[in-house]
Write a structure and sequence with these properties.
2,3-Dihydroxybiphenyl 1,2-Dioxygenase, domain 1, metal-binding, metal ion binding, 36% strand
């Protein structure tokens, strides 16, 4: 039985919507839209009565799978662990394919964002690195080399 028709977006709850949006725009994503959402639809879907969020949808140039950033106006967000490591349960990162891994890492470092570990190479196929961005969000960058 196949239920999934496609993969539209990943949702990330954040505190500083502008800071995190700027981070992802710096990686090359584009803002598709920004809005507030509240009411019966949101309350039903997330199971939190009387909720209100401000959301930004980002997508790669030309479309594709997006990232939905949401900041809760009410109720306030619950703090997570911004230093979570890869072995902690839950979504630990998002992976983007890049043309030049070193340039991408250098650009993020200039913005104050550092590597979680180092730059690794898998056989002669991929070079990859994980960077911890704002609010502890981990993005992995992968460059196809083979």
């Amino acid at each position: 039985m196949t239920c999934v028709k496609g993969f539209d977006h990943i949702g990330i709850t954040v505190d500083d919507l502008d800071l995190v949006t700027t981070f992802f725009v710096g990686l090359g994503l584009e803002v598709e839209g920004r809005t507030f959402v509240e009411g019966e639809f949101l309350d039903t879907v997330i199971g939190i009565p009387d909720s209100r969020t401000q959301m930004v949808m980002l997508r790669p140039p030309g479309g594709g799978t997006g990232i939905e950033l949401a900041r809760f106006v009410r109720p306030r967000h619950e703090p997570g662990s911004p230093a979570a490591m890869a072995n902690e349960l839950g979504l630990r990162g998002v992976v983007f394919e890049v043309d030049d891994l070193q340039a991408a890492v250098d650009g993020l470092a200039a913005g104050g964002y550092g590597l979680v570990g180092g730059i690794g190479q898998h056989e002669n196929t991929w070079r990859m690195a994980a960077v911890r961005g704002p609010e502890g969000i981990v993005v992995s960058l992968a460059e196809r080399i083979g």
